[in-house]
Amino acid sequence: QVQLVESGGGLVQPGGSLRLSCTASGGTLRFYAIGWFRQAPGKEREGVSSISMSDGTTYYTDSVKGRFTISRDHAKNTAYLQMNNLKPEDTAVYYCAAAEYFAPHDNTWHVQDEYDLWGQGTQVTVSL
Question: What is the spatial distance between Cα 44 and Cα 19, in angstroms, rounded to a whole number?
Answer without folding.
Answer: 23
